[in-house]
Amino acid sequence: MFAALSLVRRAGPRSLFCSAICVALMTALTGCTRLREHLKPEMVYVVAKQTYLRDRVAAVSNRVALVTNGQPLEVIEHGRRFLRTKTSKGEVGWIEDHMVIDQSTYDQFAALQQQHAHDPVVATAVLRDDLYLHVKPGRETDRFYLLPENQKLQLLIRASVPKPEPPQGILTAPRPATETAKAKKAGASGKALPPGGPPPIPMEDWWLVRDSQGQVGWLLSRRLDVDVPDEIGGYSEGQKMVGAYVLTKVYDPESSLPDKLVPEYVSVTNAFKDGLPYDFDQVRVFTWNIKKHRYETAYRQRNIEGYLPITVSEDKAGNGQSLPVFSFAVAMSDAVKVDALTGAVRPAQTATLSYQLEAGMVKRVTAAGPPGSAPVPIQPKTTGAPAHHHHRSGAGKGG
């Protein structure tokens, strides 16, 4: 019995000692983990299309490695307007700091891509020149990914922002001589000139786009050409084609298409002007005349304030036949709401208009109300001129 008590007494201090060692080890490991997190390497990402890392910052230096747009680099040392960096292959050299973006800016682009990964595509377009994606609409905002010329892009959201003022020293265009003459004539006759408020702020449109790799960012709309089928592209009548969407296909044995199936379209157009508070002001449906083998205008509606996207679906008729239906949103009042981050303008109150194409004729589809009630007519806000509905006309060039 005394021997057992002696063993217990001897084991006590050892247990306490072992426990103290374990606590110390755990504390040390925790400290190492925090230290590793604190010592996480600083990363930057190449903005330039391509450039070289150099072995020193001097007028004469040697090229170390070629780096390209989007490539990550680890920062080793900060210099004056230069960074000493290392590639994933271990190549070390200096690069100018304006040719890279930091981790924070890179994270903004990553967040933008994640937020809009599943946004509906309102139209597709082709890029005219090499152009950078921006994190926000505006020429002075941060940019990163460089997209190549002829890249096909998905258009997601349109926004308008103030156009940058021309640099100092560049004179603006003089007022037309006719306006000057009218002003002088009015002043000489003693008539009061109309009160002139501040001139309107010039605006420019930007599109949030998504490329084939899923990269998302903002591009200046004037550098994009919207995809429009050649067969109806000549019927724009001086308007800008915002989008064209296939409604259905009809069989024409004399068609030049391989499958003899000719598409019929709904298109939306707008004026060649930036900063408009709506996406399009005209809707037009092109159907195919099998006898004359040409497109005709089956329906046209002008002077509306319409908003993308245009949705195309199918509806079952009474005979079980599927009929194409297209829908879009229109503004119902002057009230608008503006996205504080992008400047995108959207109406505060909208209604959805739906139309059905059957046997070459376009009919309005009205949503069903309560049983026994009559459908309430929708009166969308117009652009100022009375809206016109046009049915069944030839759609020749300029006609």
Walk me through the structure.
This protein has helices spanning 2-38, 103-115, 177-188, 230-233; strands spanning 43-46, 50-54, 63-68, 72-78, 82-86, 92-96, 100-102, 123-127, 131-134, 143-147, 152-162, 203-210, 216-220, 224-226, 240-251, 261-270, 280-289, 294-316, 322-331, 336-338, 345-347, 350-358, 361-365, 389-390, 393-394. 17% of the residues lie in helices and 41% in strands. The chain has three domains: 43-102, Roll (SH3 type barrels); 116-163 and 203-227, Roll (SH3 type barrels), CATH 2.30.30; 228-369 and 377-394, no CATH class. The strands form six sheets. Strands 15, 16, 17, 18, 19, 22, 23, 24 and 25 form a nine-stranded antiparallel sheet that branches. A five-stranded antiparallel sheet has the order 6-5-4-1-7. It has a five-stranded antiparallel sheet with strand order 13-12-11-8-14, with helices on one face. The chain is elongated, with a radius of gyration of 32 Å. The protein starts with a helix and ends in a 5-residue tail after the last strand. It is of the alpha+beta class and 399 residues long. The longest helix has 37 residues, at 2-38.
